[in-house]
Amino acid sequence: MTIDRRRLIAGGAALAGSSSLAACDEVTRERLQARLNPTRTGSDAPVAGTDAPAVEVVADARGGTVSETVRMPAQPWTYDAFVAAMAASERPSSLSEAQFNVIQSRKPAAIQRIKTYLDGKFGAADPRVVQAFESVPRDFFHYAYASQDSTAYQAYEASPKPWAIGHGSVLSDYLGQAYMTQLAEPKPTDVTLEIGTGSGFQSSLLSRIVRDSYTIEIIEPVGRAVSKIFKPLGYDNVHARVGDGYFGWPEVEGGFDTIMLTCVAQYAPPELFRQLKPGGKLIIPIGQPFRRGQVLYVYTKDEDGRVRSRRDVGVFFIPMTGAMQNRPRPQGA
Amino acid sequence: MSGSHRDPDSDGAGAAVTPVQKSARAALIPLFLVALGVVGIENALTRYFAVAKWSEYGYWIISIVMAGFALSGVIVALFRDTVEKHGEWLRAALPATMVLAAALGYERIARNPFNPLQLQNPTTWADQLLNIAGYYGALLPFFFLAGLYIALIFILNPREIGRVYAYDLIGAGLGSALALGLMFLVHPFLLAPVLLVPLALAPLFQPGRFRILGGVLAGGALVLGEAILLLGTPPAYSEFKAVYAPMNTEGAEVVAEVRRPRGHYLMLDNFTERVDADVSNNASMMEVEGPPSTYGLYRDGSRIAALPKVGGLGGGYADSALSAAPYRLRPGAEALILGASGGFRLAEARALGAERLRVVESEPVLKHALTHGLGPSRGLALGGDVQLAEGGPLAVARAAVAAAPAERFDVIDVSSDFIDAAPANVTALTVEAMQAYLAALEPDGMISVPVSIRDFPVYAFRVMATAREALIRTGLERPEDHIMVYRSAWNARILISPTPWSEADVAALETFAAARSFDVSWRPGLDVAAARANLFNDLPVVSFESGTVVSQGTDDAIAREAEAVLQGRDTPSARAFNIRPQTLDRPAWYASLRLDRPTTLIDRLEVLPQAEIGALVNLVVLAQAVVIALLVLSAPLLFRRRSHGPPEPRRVWPVLYFPCLGLGFLLIEIFLIDKAAFYLNDYSSAFALVLTSMLIFSGLGSLIAGRVGGLPKLASFLSLVMVLGWIWLVFTHGEALILSTLDQPAWTRWLIVLAAAAPVSLALGLPFPLGLIQVGEGRMLPWAWGLNGAFSVVATPLANLMSREVGFSSLLMMGAALYVLAFLALPPGRRARPATGPEPLPASSPA
Q1: Which DSSP helix (H) or strand (E) runs through B467?
Q2: Nearest CA in chain A to B57
Q3: Distance from B572 to chain A by nearest Cα, in Å?
Q4: Which of A184, A306, A331, B800 has the lowest CB atom count within 10 Å?
Q5: A151-162 pLDDT, tens per residue?
Q6: Does B309 touch chain A (CB under 8 A)?
Q7: Sorting pLDDT into bands at 50, 70 and 90, what band is A6?
Q8: Is A86 on the interface with B (CB under 8 A)?
C-alpha cells in the first residue's frame, strides 16, 4: 500500500438542523441550503450522511475594520507579556526569561531571511508581509499541544523548518509561510478564510493585514486549544471555529478574497469556489507537510465565475532567466 | 537406557536409532519452537511498522533481523569453543533472554518518535537518523540472541545438520503461518504478546538437567515480558497517517473493524468522509449536487475507499467529474469497471447512463462490503445489469474475448483508487493487460485510465508509453491516433481506442472538457500552441535536473511531450525519469525515479512523492546489507589458532558457496511471490502461501541432506538439475500456464501455486545443509550460518531493485547462475561420519 497521506476536509451533508447554520434565521438558512444543494426540491430531508457535528462559533462573524497599515502590537512583546498571554490562552509554559530573550535576539535575523527569501522568489518582498511577520510573535505559536508545553525555544531558528505541534498538525517553516502569504497578495480590505488552523500562525499573520481572518480547524483537540490564543494577543479580527471545513463559512456575506487550505487536501470542495469572490484566490498546498514550503495550487475566479488553476512551484524550482522580471512588484516594495 | 529400533529416518541407511540420537532429536523441538516464535515476532514487527508507520520501512526491519543473525554467526564462530563448552546452560537460558529482549525491544520501538516524513527535509532528517539508530538498538539484541540460539544448536548437533536445518525451516514456515492466522483474530499491536509464548515454551521441551531451570526462567521472563508489552507505552498510529485526523474530529466513531493479514481495517463515521471525486472547478455553475457524505474505510491507517450510508449512493455529481467523459462519448455503454470504489463507481456509471456493468473488485474486504455490506453500510443489490466478476482484470478481459462478441465492452473504466486499493492491481496497467482490454472492446470502445498528476505529470507519460506499446503489439501503426488525454489540475484521464478517434469523438471530448474547465492535453491533430493559449489548469514544465521552471507563461507540461512520447521519440521527461512501459515482468507503478542519478534525486528529495521513497529506502538498506555481509565474509581473518580440537584448514570455497545460496534462495522466493500475487490476484495470500510452502518443503528437502551427505557433489548436482529444470520450465511455459488458468477457481489456483513451489523448494533445501556438513564441526560451521543470513539480507532489497529496473525474470536468471556457481564451488567433499556407533553423550542425554 502506498502512503498517500491525505487530510480530509469534507464534511457532513446533513444541513437540516446543522448547528453550523444555527446562527442564521430561517430565511437565510433556506437560502444557503438552496445555494449549497441546488438539486434539492425544498424538502428538509437531508441528502445523505450524518448529522453535522456541533460546531462552536468562537467569535461572531461580523466584519472587522479596515486598517491601511499593518497592525502592529500596541505594547512591546516582553517576557511578562508572553507569560500573561500564555496564561490567558490556558497553555502552560516553562520558558524562562533568559530563554525568551535569546529567542527575541534571533528574530531580526529571521526577518531579514524572510525579506531576502521573498526578494529572491518574487523580485521584491511585499513590505506588508514582512511587517506582519514583525508584528506577530511567532514564539507564542510554538506549542506542543499533545504534551502541553511551550516550544517557543524553537522559534526564529536559523535553519527554518516545519515543527510538529501535536495531533498531526504542523507549524510550517516561516519561509514557506512567507511565500504563501505573499502569493495571496493580501490587502487591507480583504476577507480571508483558512481551512486548517493548525498553530493559528497563518491566520494571525493575515489578520495583521486584512480586514477579517476566518479560520476553521477540523481536529478537535487542536482546534479547541488554538481558538483560545487569539484573544490574548488582541487579534479581534480573527474568527475561529472547530468543525467541518468542507462548506467553508457560508454565513460570511460576500465571500472571501483569499481562501487557503493549509492542511493537505485531495481536492478543492465545490462550495469553497462558491464562496470565493471573483478575482479572489484559493490556495492549496500539496504534498506532505514536512517539506520546506509546498507546491501550491492557486485557483482564481473570473468575473463570470469560471475557475482556473495554476500550479506554483516557486518554492522548489526557480524561473528561468527573464520570467522573474515579468512578475509585478508588490505595492510599496 | 536400552532398546533401539530400526529407524528409516536415521542418518545411516537402516541403522538403529540410539538413545543418544533420540535425545538429540528431542532437543530439536525447542529449536522448532524458537524458529516459530522468531519468525512470528518478525511478522509482528512488520505489521507494527505497516500499521503504525509506513510499510516500506518494514524492509529496514527485515534487514535488522538478518543483521542480528549474521552477527551472531560471527560471534559464535569467533568464540566457538567457549560457546560449545557452555552450550547446555546457554541453550536453557537463551529463550528467557529472547523473551525479555523481544518485549523490551517492542516497547522501545513503540516509544520511538520516528517520523519518516521528516527524512525528506534536509533540516529535519538528522533527528530521524537518530531514531532509526534507536530501532537498531531496540531490535538487534533480540535477533542476535535468536541467531545465537540457532547457531548454538548447529554446533551442538554437528552430525544432525540436515535435521537441524529442517527443524529450523519448518518451524519458521509454521511460525509464519501461525502469525498470518493470528492476524485474523488479534489486533496487529497485540501479535507480539501472543507470539512470545512459543519462545517461552521452548525450554520445557529441552531434555537434560537444565530443563526445569530454563522453564522457570522462561516463565518468569514471559510474565515480565507481557507486563512490559501490556503496561508499557502502547503502540499507536502515527499522527501523520491519514486516519488520525478523521478519528479526532468531533463525534468520530469506529463503526466496523476487520482483521486480516493483508491489513487492519477500520471503518469510520465522521464528518470528513466523502466520496473522493475529482469534480469540475465549476461544479457550482453546473447546478449539480456535491459528492455525498459516506463512511471511510481505512487499511493500516491509509484511506482506501468511501462506503455508502443508507440512501447515500447518489451519483448526482457524476456528470461534473473528470471520469465522466467515456460515458458521454458512449451513451448507454456496456462497461467493465475495475474497482467499484465502495459502490460509488457503479452509481456514477449508472447515473451517466451505462446500461450493463461488470465489476472487478480485487480488494477482498471491499468486495465483501459490496456484496454483503460492512458494519452499518449495506451491500449493493447486484445482479441484473450489474455483475460482479470473479478473477482479476486480465482474467475477465480474456474471458470476454473468449466469449461471444456480445460480451465485449464499450468502456473499460479503471477507477482512480484501483491501483492503490491492492498491491496486485498494478498488473492492471501493464502492456499485457491493455492488450487484453483492447481485444475485449467493441471496435469503437475505449479504455479509460486515471493518472494522478498531483506530484509528477510523468505518471501520465508512463501510462501513455504503456498504451503505445500495447497498441503496437496489437498491430496498430500510429498509436497517437488512438489516444486522447484530458485532465483537471489533479488528475489526467487517458482514453485508448482500438480504432482511430473520429472527429466527432474529438469534438465531443473538447466540448465535455470546456464545459467543466478541464483541458485536453492530447488528441489526434492537437495544435499544442493553441491549446496552451486557453488553459483552465496551468501545468508548468519544470526541469527536474536543473531545478528550473522551463515554462514562461501558462503551459501544459503533458501537451508539450505527448506526441513525442506516443511516437516513441526522446523527450526531456524520458531522460529525467523512467517512463518505460509497464509489463507483467516489470509491473511496479511507483517506479518513475532514475536510480542511476542519485545526485539529482538527493537534490530534489523534497519534491519526491511519498510513494517513490521506497526505492531510496531500498538503496540504503542494500548498502547497509552489503557492508554487513562483507564484514561477516571477512570474519575468518580474525580466527585465531584453536587451543584444542582438530586444526581447521583455511578454505575458500565457503566464501562463494554460502553467499550464492543465501542470495539465490531469496531471489527465487521473491520471484514466486510476485507471480503468485498476480495469479491469485492478491499479494497477501500469495506471500503467505509461497513463504510457508517454501520454508516447509525446503525443510523437508534438508532432511534428505543427512542421508546423502556422503555424496555431496552428486546430491548437489541432482539438486541443481532440478532447480535449473524448474527455472527452464517457468521461463518457457510459466506465463502460458498462468494466463490459461487465470479463470480457474481460487482453490485450483492455490493448488497450482503449491505444486509449483513444492518441487523447487525440496531441491533448494539440499545445498545449504550439504555445505554445512562439508565445513565440518569447527568455527566455519556457525560462520557459514551467519554468512548465509548476511547474504539473505542483501537479497531482498537487491531483488526489489532488480525487479523494478530489469524485471522479475532477472531474479530467476540470477538465481540460476548463483546455484550453478554454488555447485561449482562445492568441493567433492569429505565423507560425513555416520551417526551410528559410539558417540560421546551430549550433556542433555538422560542416559
Answers
A1: helix B458-473
A2: A3
A3: 16
A4: A331
A5: 999 999 999 999
A6: yes
A7: very low
A8: no
* Residue owning grid cell 501537451: B559
pLDDT tens string B446-467: 999 999 998 889 999 999 999 9
Confidence label for B642 from pLDDT (cuts 50, 70 and 90): low
- As a whole number of Å, the end-to-end CA separation of chain B is 6
How many Cβ atoms from other residues are within 10 Å of residue A265's Cβ?
22
Who wins on pLDDT, A304 or A36? Answer: A304
Of the candidates A5, A263, A308, the beta carbon closest to that of B536 is on A308
Instruction: Give yes or no for A270 touching B (CB within 8 A).
Output: yes
User: What sign results for the dihedral spanned by CA atoms B99, B102, B103, B104?
Assistant: positive
CB pair distance less than 8 Å for B121 and A320: no
Task: Confirm or reject contact between B125 and chain A (CB < 8 A).
Answer: no
Cβ atoms of B757 and B697 within 8 Å: the answer is yes
Q: Which residues of B723-757 are buried (b: 16+ CB within 10 A; e: fewer)?
A: bbebbeebeeebeeebbeebbbeeeebbebbeebb
Residues in chain B: 847
Edge-to-edge strand list for the sheet holding B483-487? B386-388, B356-360, B334-338, B409-414, B441-452, B491-496, B483-487, B519-522
Q: Determine the pLDDT at residue A26.
A: 47
Are the C-beta atoms of residues B531 and B554 closer than 8 Å to each other?
no
Least Cα distance to B358 among B401, B396, B402 occurs for B396
Q: What cell was used for B575?
A: 531522460
**For the ranges A104-108, B472-476, B709-713, which has the lowest average pLDDT?**
B709-713
B206-235 in b/e form (b: 16+ CB < 10 A) is bbbebbeebbebbbebbeebbebbeeeeeb
What average pLDDT does chain B have? Answer: 88
Give the other-Cβ count within 10 Å of B13's Cβ: 8
pTM above 0.90, yes or no: no
* CB-based contact B286:B264 (threshold 8 Å): no
Q: Note the pLDDT of residue A262.
A: 80
Beta bridge pairs of residue B495: B448, B484
Q: What is the pLDDT of residue B183?
A: 92
The pLDDT value given to residue A63: 62
CB contact under 8 A, B292 and A287: no
Test mutation, A290, A294, A306, A310, chain B, max B CBs within 10 A: A290
Chain A neighbors of B117, CB-CB under 8 A: 5, 288-290
DSSP B605: G
Bigger pLDDT: B67 vs B231: B231
Which pLDDT score is estimated for B429?
A: 95
What residues contact residue B616 under an 8 Å CB cut-off, 6+ apart?
Answer: B593, B601, B608
pLDDT in tens, B387-442: 999 888 998 998 888 887 778 999 999 999 999 888 889 999 999 999 999 999 99
- Cell triple for residue A76? 512591546
Cβ contact A287–B276 (<8 Å): no
- Grid look-up 496489437 returns B474
What pLDDT does residue B187 have? 93
| CB-CB neighbors (< 8 A) of A270 in chain B | 279, 281, 283-284, 290, 320
Q: Is B277 on the interface with A (CB under 8 A)?
A: yes
Q: How many CB atoms lie within 10 A of CB B390?
A: 15
DSSP character string of B569-586: ---HHHHHB--PPP-SSS
Query: Would you call A221 exposed, middle or buried from its count of C-beta atoms within 10 A (0-12, 13-18, 19+)?
Result: middle
Q: Which amino acid is at B491?
A: N
Residue A312's SS3 state is strand
Contact A53 B251 (CB under 8 A): yes
B279 touching A (Cβ < 8 Å) = yes
Mean pLDDT computed over A247-276: 87
Which amino acid does the sequence have at A50? T
Contact B531, B597 (CB under 8 A): no
Which residues of chain A does B299 touch, with a Cβ-Cβ cutoff of 8 Å?
1
